[in-house]
Design goal:
Blueprint: H1 2-9, H2 14-21, H3 23-54, H4 56-60, E1 65-69, H5 84-90, E2 95-109, E3 116-124, H6 134-138, E4 148-152, H7 160-167, E5 172-176, E6 179-187, E7 197-202, H8 203-209, E8 220-225, H9 231-241, E9 247-251, H10 252-265, H11 268-298, H12 300-309, H13 313-350, H14 359-379, H15 388-391
Parallel strand pairs: 3-7, 4-6
Antiparallel strand pairs: 1-8, 1-9, 2-3, 2-8, 4-7, 5-6
């Protein structure tokens, strides 16, 4: 390490040597930076899982435009829309077809374990194309049979016995909300922060499961445009069609962005994860500052000597910044390794897609370097007290 720094800087790496001079302090400082890195990595991992899972359902739809309530913020809280808006949309230039989609939340209790699973139920028209995945779309036609359903195999804590039977092609009967449902197929989507999994039924079965819902008030309407039509232009024409502003046509991307913006800015959980990143940076900044400030204080006589010899202020800044960047690098590597292990543990425990993206280590290292550099900049204020007159 000393040889590398000497080659990079062209002189003796005084900052690195000072860190090595007190190994106990060095280990404590690296531990602090590592802890801050792990905290930042975990918060970013959970935050990314929140954003990606919150729009997993949206991304499965084969649609260009989604008609939702004008006050739409999230699928979880979406108000229903009048079905008549779908028929009006069909008359607009550029609209190819439209289909209603019903959403609701339903609990199922496993009779063998008494564990309760929270499902998001999607009610779709089995005669319409709804999903992008061809394998999933092929399974929709059998849902014309009453009380048939498809279930998400990535449902959190889903019973292995039911999963095995479905994968073997055997239907499974379960009781939900006092009705017997037959699970005739499966797909893979995954859990989110608000539901354990997803279940798909026909719109008629959905209305039997949710007797208070009405056929004339779907949750959203999925609209596909004519080939070559611009979805944004068609959405503008649709919005101009409804001066009452009770519904709004979103392009699919606009709906995804609206959902993620809501999760980031208007939900407590989004704020908590963002706040956790800030706390991690503050913790690391304080720890590194304490180490560097103590180190500067311990070597004040040496700094005063350098001043008396005639070294300029930038020399002292370079020494402290070298210590800061070295601590950032030493703490980042174990922090990344520990976070990769914790990602695996957290993903298994929560069934959430907590994964390390390619750009995240780069971003965290940059944040760590900035954090340590700021700490070094604050610590150098003590160098102003290094007066050669006091030494001699």
């Amino acid at each position: 390490m000393s040889a590398l720094l000497m080659r990079l800087t062209g002189r003796l790496p005084i900052g690195w040597k000072q860190l090595l001079h007190n190994r106990t302090r060095l280990v404590a400082a690296v531990g602090g930076v590592t802890f801050a890195n792990v905290l930042i990595f975990m918060q970013l991992g959970f935050m990314n899982a929140l954003f990606s899972t919150s729009v997993m359902t949206h991304r499965t739809w084969d649609t260009d435009i989604v008609i939702a309530a004008s006050d739409f913020r999230s699928l979880r809280e979406a108000n229903p829309v009048p079905r008549s808006r779908m028929y009006q949309a069909l008359a607009v230039d550029g609209v190819h077809d439209a289909t209603p989609l019903y959403l609701g939340t339903m609990f199922w209790t496993d009779p063998d374990t008494s564990d309760t699973t929270n499902f998001r139920v999607m009610g779709v028209d089995p005669d319409q194309r709804v999903f992008l995945d061809p394998a999933l779309q092929r399974q929709v036609a059998p849902l014309r049979q009453p009380d048939y359903a498809l279930v998400d195999l990535k449902t959190r804590d889903f019973p292995a016995a039911i999963r095995d039977r479905l994968e073997a092609g055997s239907p499974v009967r379960i009781e939900v909300s006092g009705r017997q449902l037959t699970l005739v197929g499966s797909f893979s989507q995954g859990a989110t922060f608000d539901v354990d999994g997803v279940m798909i039924t026909s719109d008629e079965t959905f209305l039997r499961l949710f007797p208070r819902r009405r056929p004339g008030t779907p949750t959203v309407v999925l609209v596909r445009c004519d080939p070559g039509a611009d979805p944004e232009a068609v959405a503008r024409r649709l919005n101009a069609l409804w001066p009452e502003k009770d519904v709004r046509a979103f392009t699919k991307q606009q709906l995804v962005e609206a959902e993620q913006s809501y999760q980031a800015k208007q939900t407590p959980i989004g704020f908590v994860f963002g706040f956790g990143v800030v706390i991690g940076l503050i913790v690391g900044l304080v720890i590194v500052y304490q180490v560097l400030a103590t180190d500067v204080q311990d070597h004040m006589a040496e700094y005063a000597t350098f001043k008396a010899i005639g070294y300029p202020p930038r020399f002292f800044l370079g020494v402290v910044f070298q210590e800061a960047v070295s601590l950032a690098a030493l703490g980042f590597i174990p922090g990344l390794g520990i976070s990769l292990v914790l990602y695996q543990v957290a993903a298994r425990a929560t069934s959430l897609p907590i994964t390390m993206t390619l750009g995240r280590p780069i971003m965290v290292f940059v944040l760590t370097a900035v954090m340590c550099t700021i700490s070094g900049a604050i610590a150098t204020r003590r160098l102003n007290a290094a007066d050669p007159a006091d030494l001699f």
